[in-house]
Structure prediction request, 241 residues.
Amino acid sequence: MYKLQKLIANAGYGSRRWAEKLIGQGRVEVNNKTAQIGDKCTIYDSVKIDGRKIDLKRYNEAKTKVLILNKQAGVICANKDTKGRKSVYDLLPKENRWVMVGRLDLNTSGLLLFTNNGDLANKLMHPSTEIDREYAVRVLGRVEKKDIVKLTQGIELDDGFAKFSRLSIGGGSGANCWYKVVLKEGRKREVRRLWEALGFRVSRLIRVRFGEVRLPKNLKTNQMDYLKPDQVKLLLKSAGL
Prediction:
């Protein structure tokens, strides 16, 4: 038997802290009884959150696996799509229930991580971990030194203060000028919104690194590969697991 919050987290429904909060609020039931902090159960017990049964059989004590996908722009980061567009989940092996580590918007390409360990995914995405996300970005417009200062010192967006922790020139000129930027959080469209706040338009955006994991140069568009055991260990360590 395992602590209830651990099962909920490892099944990919949220972090342990989030699960503990729900339990404390009386919103979780185990076998039709209101759960208490400290309760334990198995994947075969009936667990409900706000009256809705969840699938704890997603939980897997097997060895943590992580795979990397080179997402193509135009591929969606969702299981289902009413418009019939290709999903990143169509490109993954079927032997596990994969949890995505931070999505990319429709027009962004590059590195995506997936894992069978829901707790690892939640830890990596939590703002408190402050894991680097590095992007290569092509910007239309003449970028001055004052713009770089503003982008690295911080700009107030509609959902709060944001900035690049690092920004450097990546090459090219004119309409083909590239920059390398690093963020320590994963808010929706944050890279694009920072540039747009200063009147620039992002014409191309590629995520090239997440933490210690870089997008392999030989990994073709919409292809995936498993991370090596030492890379998985680094991710687990960076997440405090």
